[in-house]
Amino acid sequence: MRSLALTLFLSVMLLTFCNKRGFSQTSVEDEYQMKQYFMVFLKSGLTRTQDSVTAAKMQEGHLNNITRLFNEKKLILAGPFLDDGIYRGIFIFDIATEEEVKQLLQTDPAIKAGRLDYEIHPWYGPGNITIGKK
After folding, report:
1. For residues 11 and 94, what is the distance between their CA atoms, to the nearest angstrom?
2. Are the C-beta atoms of residues 65 and 58 closer than 8 Å to each other?
3. In degrees to the nearest 10, what's the CA dihedral of 50, 53, 56, 61?
């Protein structure tokens, strides 16, 4: 819920700034080629009792999966949060549907094992994001 509030707050601030500068939403959308993405907040899952060897193998598989999704140009941004809270990291997918995002998340061994859980939020951002795009 807190993450949704932050996303909404940032969106309102962007629109407020643009309106004060004399920009219409349409001109901002045109200039930045705005489009929909899917933002995923990775959270601590309910099953985090794996031994250190198993957890390390899961992490390796998690990172390999991220690399594969980057190479397939489906994932444009990924990274961990550094505060060791319930929210563990973030993904931004450049995918057409939430259902496809859910299917891709199930290819992650840490999610499949319950070590990580997730929240999916549609996100409206600049269409020229190129992080992870080759």
Report:
1. 19
2. no
3. -90
Mind listing the pLDDT tens digit for each residue in 50-100? 889 999 999 999 999 999 999 999 999 999 999 989 999 999 999 999 999
pTM higher than 0.70? yes
Determine phi and psi for 86, rounding to 5 degrees: -65, -35
What's 129's DSSP letter?
-
Torsion 117-122-125-130 (CA) sign: positive
Give CA angle at 110 (51, 95), nearest 5°: 170
Secondary structure of residue 124 in the 3-state scheme: strand
Contact of 121 with 66, CB cutoff 8 Å: no
